Amino acid sequence: MVGMDTAQRLRLYYEACIPMGLLVLGMFHYGFPPFDDTTLTLVPGLLMCIIITYYLYDRLSSNTDDTHVLPGTQTSMYRRRADPGRMWGGMLVPLVMFALNIGDASDGKHSVGLGACGAWVLSVAMAWTFTVRLSGLSSGCSWALCVAGILALALAGPWERGNTGVHVCLVAMSAIAQHMGTQFVVRKLPRSFTLGEAAAIAQGICLALLDLAAQLFTRKQGLVDPQHMCVLVLEAAGVGTALIVCVLYMAPRHSQGVSVKDTVWMCVAAGAGAGVTTSIIAFVSGANPMRWIVLAVLGSQTGRIVLIYWFMLMTCATAIYAWCAQTPTSSSKLMLHIKRKSYHILAVLLFAPAYIATPLVLHIGFTIALCVFVCAESVRVLCLNGWGTQMTHFMRRFTDARDVGLVVTAHFYLLVGCAVPVWLDNTRGCVEAALAGVLALGVADTCASLVGLRFGSIKWPATVKTVEGTGAFIASLVVAVECMRWAKGFGYDTASGYDEMPGYGLVGSFVVCVAMGVLEALTDQNDNLVIPLTMYAAVKTLIHSDTISWVSVVVVAAMLAVPLIPHSTLIQLHSVL
Description:
Helix content is 71%, strand content 0%. The longest helix has 26 residues. Helix 17 packs across helix 20 and helix 18 packs antiparallel against helix 19. The protein is built from 22 helices and no strands.
């Protein structure tokens, strides 16, 4: 690998400063001793501070590109023309879990399953083992540090319930599962993800599975609370969808055309997945899953209106896309961007009004949509019933250089980026957090892409992004956020437990939007995944506070000022360490 120049090194460093700065602000303000007595982040906070220090130092002092790969994988298995993004693999999920913990730890809204603190501890455990394993240390040293971190989190973490043996098992299982999960994603879906993206996806899936396992062992019969039921439906549907994919994978392959055997296998897979999903929901909650979903969606006039609106909008969109598919494919880069960003605009039209009207229906709709997307992509990759070639031909019209792997990830990232903030907010009514993905991707990213491509002339150092595009991103996101706050009564539903906080207004919105605009310009990861989750964490970090700890401000300022140190000094420090 060739050495990185100063511009590239600074781009990577300041990209890392955004999520790490948010985590530092949150930890120092909400419970990092000795500045607070809650000890919310005592051991996890110390480990995350070590991780933050390591990544900042590594990004700034390294003379070569990030060449570390996960043991058991090869460089050719990762998406090309992108930095591996190790920092995001070690930071993104803990950042989101900490932000979720800020609003939920005090009121017990996640008392089912792992709990808010439990999810935060396990995310730190996964980030710690991921970072240590890729740090370049000897095998014995890395394993020793992994075991030490696991024991420290199990013995001194801020757990809500359970005994020490259960905690040790949970932390160890999470660490092993994220490592195996990342390996599986990279090896089975080659060239589809960077290392950081694969790690973040694997960590998120592991947390969901462990939370579902905790619910299975602590059954809450009669549990019909909408927030908890939504989470249960999502996790159970994920297990059912995974079973469908496994059954389809075992189906015999046929060269071409429609096959009766393929159709039978698809029906068997759908039946097995639906049966497992409903059985898990019924076992944990004691409720009739289909009855609960039907009543949740169709039990109110608002839900029925949203379904009619979605049907009419999707009918029009399908007709338009079918007409576009019949027209000659244009080689214009601008036309390709317009086609791709039309899906982003469609996402805004589908999701934003639905959330304003009924967050519960949108939550369930996202769950169903993700299951359908996964099943459809499995059929395409496996070429079942002769549909694979047709689906591939259609989808390649809207892909770019990042979709060269086995799986076409563009539509998945768009859906997941819009859905995850809604799932995390979980019908509570915090519009800026819940619609972080919809607004950042559907509005801001679309404006940035089109304005930057059409009018951009001043490029950011070491990147193809333009200053004009970043300006359009920030301006459009500020306007979109304020419009949504106005539409939702300034973004807070007091009946759901949210109160207007004096420290988060137009200034807070502007700070968050500027940070997201800079991140969009600097990151080489898929922005459909990184930006929504980081924006969600930024909003949650600011929304529950009317002040920010001065200590955290000093720490973040020091992080930003580190590049002023002469590079020769950093090289000498690197050689000493």
